[in-house]
Automatic annotation (TrEMBL):
One of its GO terms (biological process) is epigenetic regulation of gene expression. Residues 94-113 form the RanBP2-type domain. Gene3D superfamilies: Histone deacetylase domain. GO terms for cellular component: cytoplasm; histone deacetylase complex. Belongs to the histone deacetylase family. HD type 2 subfamily. It comes from Vanilla planifolia (Vanilla). It holds the Pfam family Hist_deacetyl. GO terms for molecular function: histone deacetylase activity, hydrolytic mechanism; zinc ion binding. Its cofactor is Zn(2+). Keywords: Chromatin regulator, Hydrolase, Metal-binding, Nucleus, Repressor, Transcription, Transcription regulation, Zinc, Zinc-finger. InterPro entries: HDACs, His_deacetylse_dom, His_deacetylse_dom_sf, Ureohydrolase_dom_sf, Znf_RanBP2. Its EC number is 3.5.1.98. This is histone deacetylase. Its main location: nucleus.
Length: 446
């Protein structure tokens, strides 16, 4: 079995610390040599600490020399993703089912998230549900009918379709991809376990987005496979319909349980797991349905460079993003505070860049109180769309921040008053199944 113990950029000009996971097996590896094409060097902490203990004095350098079995054919050189694994050497290891991060064979709990090595996450009663068992299809019609009968203004409309589970990122033999179908299954199962859905929320019928609804947005002409194309069109279609339903007043809020995520997709290209910009599609649909002003709040831990690009010259859509930035070293590198929009749109892009990892509830709530809410209230949007990545959640392997489900619930609550309750929450990133499930569930409850 070949190991995946660090992350790299194939192109040295790209940011080297993009999404570097918080797994100490990875973060303590000095990536600078690796970028130059050399072997891995090991930092002092790692050499003198855990690694040495585990491997009885051998170093990663030894592994590079002796067991350098790189299989480069796993890489698509044209791929532009915010996540890339590397496998320069072999070690016995296991991948965490909850967060996908690699761990040494002799530890039984995941270094990043604490999940037990042998735990069957979908066997747990929290996840044991209709969705986890793959019988969603037989239930869908019934849920739809019940939804239409029980739909009321007070219930949350949910956009979900199991065809979005068929999309998989280009498979790397060496490492499970963090943007995976289990993300939706886990959230759906958690909503079911909480009795929220099916139940208190109504399901809307799924449809694919029409090409003309995408307008000048990026139209992907190559997909990983036909399932990806379909999944992306359904995700965008659901987001458009949820925006339309909310604007019509049939329901006041909605949750789009969709993938692939969208906020890195702009007018020119798809990047970072994203194919269509779902939030932008929803914003345009809301405007077509009568909204004059749309607020997009992006609390995904990464900057929504695609969304910013689409609306930076547009004063009818206010884009506010909170994200790790670290002076441009964190993926995708954009989103500095000085980026405030262009031409007509100046002042209608607001970036709140964090300078480090570990940001938690208090920082987010403070930023909401001091910046997001005052600006949003003055803007007085007709609808608020949230690009809701849960990769700033505690335990996320890529975000390495510390937001709790209660924090997400409070942010949701604060935003719901801004546009008279018209709120559409769209799933973006988030890769720790337990964290995204509990976070999304507390957001929908709110
Ligand atoms: Zn884990
Ligand atoms: Zn963001
Ligand atoms: Zn993200």
């Amino acid at each position: 079995m070949s190991a995946t113990l660090c992350y790299h950029r194939k192109n040295p000009e790209k940011k080297v610390s993009d999404d570097a996971p918080c797994n100490p097996l990875i973060s303590e590896v000095d990536m600078s040599n690796e970028i130059d094409g050399g072997c891995l060097s090991v930092s002092g902490t790692m050499e003198s600490g855990r690694y040495k203990k585990l491997q009885k004095g051998s170093t990663i350098q030894d592994y590079c020399d002796n067991e350098n079995n790189v299989d480069d054919d796993d890489y698509d050189e044209d791929e532009d993703s915010d996540w890339e694994p590397i496998n320069h050497f072999s070690l016995k290891k296991w991948f965490c089912c909850n967060c996908t991060m690699p761990n040494f064979e002799d530890v039984c709990r995941c270094d990043v998230c604490g999940e037990h090595k042998e735990f069957d996450i979908f066997g747990h009663e929290l996840f044991k549900s209709t969705f986890g068992d793959g019988t969603w299809n037989s239930l869908k019609d019934e849920v739809l009918q019940r939804s239409q009968a029980s739909a009321s203004k007070s219930c949350t409309a949910i956009g979900f379709d199991d065809r979005m589970l068929l999309h998989t990122e280009v498979v790397m033999r060496s490492h499970p991809h963090p943007e995976r179908p289990d993300r939706l299954k886990a959230i759906a199962a958690s909503l079911a376990a909480a009795g929220i859905f099916p139940g208190r929320c109504s399901l809307i019928p799924a449809r694919e987005i029409y090409p003309d609804e995408l307008g000048k947005l990026f139209h992907p002409d190559t997909y990983a496979n036909q399932h990806s194309a379909l999944a992306a069109r359904i995700a965008a279609g659901l987001c458009a319909d949820l925006a339309i339903i909310i604007m019509s007043g049939k329901t006041s809020n909605g949750f789009a349980l969709v993938r692939p995520p969208g906020h890195h997709a702009g007018t020119r290209q798809a990047m970072g797991f994203c194919l269509h910009n779902n939030a932008a599609v929803a914003a345009f649909a809301a405007q077509a349905a009568g909204a004059k002003k749309v607020l997009i709040v992006d609390w995904d831990v990464h900057h929504g460079n695609g969304t910013q690009e689409i609306f930076e010259g547009n004063r009818t859509v206010l884009y506010i993003s909170l994200h790790r930035h670290e002076h441009g070293k964190f993926y995708p590198g954009t989103g500095a505070a000085v980026e405030v929009g262009v031409m007509d749109g100046q002042g209608y892009t607001v970036n709140i860049p964090w300078s480090q990892s570990g940001i938690g509830d208090n920082d987010y709530i403070f930023a909401f109180q001091q910046i997001v809410l005052p600006i949003a209230s003055e803007f007085a949007p007709d609808i608020t769309i949230v690009s809701a990545g849960f990769d700033a959640a505690r335990g996320d392997p890529l975000g390495c921040c510390d937001v709790t489900p209660a924090g997400y619930a409070q942010m949701t609550h604060m935003l719901s008053s801004v546009s008279g309750g018209k709120l559409l929450v769209i799933l973006e990133g988030g890769y720790n199944l337990r964290s995204i499930s509990s976070s999304a569930t507390s957001v929908v409850k709110e």
